Amino acid sequence: KRQFTSYRCELRALEIWFRGKTVAELTALALTDFFKRGNASKKSYNNRRGLISAFLKHGLLKDWVGENVITKVPYFRGVGHRRGSAATLNVKQCADIMTWAEENHGGALVPFIALCLFAGIRPDLYEGEISKLEAKDVRLDTSVILIEPHVSKVRMKRSVTIQPNLAAWFRAYPLEEFPIMPYAFRRLRLKFRKQFGLSHDILRHTFISMFVGKFRSLGEAALQAGNSESIISKH
User: Among 1, 6, 73, 132, which one is least packed by beta carbons within 10 Å?
Assistant: First the structure.
């Protein structure tokens, strides 16, 4: 969904910027200026170029253009690989978040926050794992959360070990009484993120970093989080 949103926004901007022109009239110079609009960073420039490149390849297949001019548009090399450590929370911040979750909205957000922070479930409420995970797949009897292929972002089944702290939260806030996505979830989630100024994946990134720090295993962290070892190592 996020990728479709990126395409929709960029193609809308393309339509406004070049209003009245056909796709065949686009030039490399004009597109370069378009990608630089708003004093864009090198990464944003490259992202825009990538989106329009896909559109122009489609145009080439549809015979809307005789050549793909994107090949003449320069791009910045190596920008996508200059990544540092992923942002994470410290222990006090995690404690503050869980205290807030208990004290606000009747504890309705506790299961959602706990699953993201202590099990690394992907938090996107539209297409993410948290929106598809069912209470029956959280199995306290065997201390495992089953992520089925239709739930997983990468369409691969995995299991996440329920650590003792997460088990304690589930016993205090059983999913039969506190659903993963409670009533008015979107509004409550937005309020929670604004309360602590959280980025999209920071809860999941904290889980992965803490897991590696405690168990010293990139391989096991990759299996439980549904990432590759190389991605975890890079961040």
Answer: 1
**Helices 91-103, 185-196: inter-axial angle, 10-degree rounding:** 140
Compute the distance between CA of residue 33 and CA of residue 7 in angstroms, rounded to an integer: 18
User: Strand 138-139 and strand 158-161: pairing?
Assistant: unpaired
pTM, two decimal places: 0.73
Question: What would the pLDDT profile of 15-64 be if each residue is shown by its tens digit?
Answer: 999 999 999 999 999 999 999 999 999 989 999 999 999 999 999 999 99
Which pair of structure tokens corresponds to residue 6? 């990126």
Nearest CA to 27 out of 74, 75, 70, 76 is that of 70
- In the chain, count of helices (H) and strands (E)? 10, 3
CA angle 101, 103, 106 (to 5 degrees): 85
Helix residue ranges per DSSP H, 18-108? 28-36, 42-61, 91-103
Closest to 115 measured CA to CA, from 165, 149, 151, 176:
165
Nearest to 34 by CA among 58, 56, 5, 64: 56
Q: Is the C-alpha dihedral spanning 170, 171, 172, 173 positive or negative? A: positive
Q: Residue 106: left if φ>0, alpha if ψ -120 to 50, beta else—which one?
A: left
Integer Cα distance of 138 and 160 in angstroms: 9
Q: Is 147 helix (H, G, I), strand (E, B) or coil?
A: strand
Residue type, 129: E
Q: Tell me the residue type at 19.
A: R
Q: How far is CA 200 from the centre of its chain?
A: 6
